[in-house]
Design goal:
The chain is of the alpha+beta class. It is built from eight helices and four strands; from the N terminus they run ααααααβαβββα.
């Protein structure tokens, strides 16, 4: 078991024991998205030149009163353990654990622009149908996608981006 999986398992079990599995996983996923899209936040939490207490204070100041105490403690713990750079991977593994506990598959959809609720629902239904499982998708905005979507369910990546389609056309010619 990797370190990421170990941290994810431990944090998932704490959230579950506190009866806050759903809200904590959702809040951590939201934080991970903000973390991945903000170089400033990454710098503030990963920079080893900043004392660990100050980095943990950043988490508390950002989330205090807005997030479940288990969420704040989990993020503070990860920052204190020097695992801030792994927040996205740890949260992804936690989402997979949470979905699995509910008999679902966890996935992620990246698009250049936010998808409407209707688009999210249609995509979730299509992915559920194609995988034969109920899925729980997290929708992320990723400007590097440029057009279309990239859907990841476990180890399966469905690349529906314009860039990918153009590459396929180029190879076919």
């Amino acid at each position: 078991m990797s370190a990421v999986d170990s941290y994810a398992n431990a944090l998932f079990e704490v959230a579950k024991a506190e009866g806050a599995q759903g809200p904590v996983v959702a809040e951590l996923a939201s934080f991970a998205q903000a973390f991945e899209s903000s170089p400033e936040l990454q710098g503030a939490l990963v920079d080893q030149m900043i004392p660990v207490e100050r980095r943990q204070t950043v988490v508390t100041e950002l989330l205090g009163g807005k997030a479940h105490p288990v969420t704040i403690n989990a993020l503070s713990f990860l920052v204190g353990a020097g695992r801030a750079k792994d927040i996205g991977a740890i949260v992804g593994a936690m989402r997979a654990l949470s979905a699995s506990a509910q008999g679902r598959a966890a996935g992620e959809v990246r698009s250049a622009h936010p998808l409407s609720l209707e688009q999210q629902q249609r995509l979730t239904a299509a992915v559920s149908k194609s995988t034969g499982k109920a899925v729980e998708l997290t929708f992320l905005v990723d400007p590097s996608v440029m057009g279309g979507v990239v859907t990841t369910i476990g180890d399966t990546v469905i690349d529906g981006t314009i860039r990918h389609r153009l590459e396929q056309l180029k190879e076919a010619v």
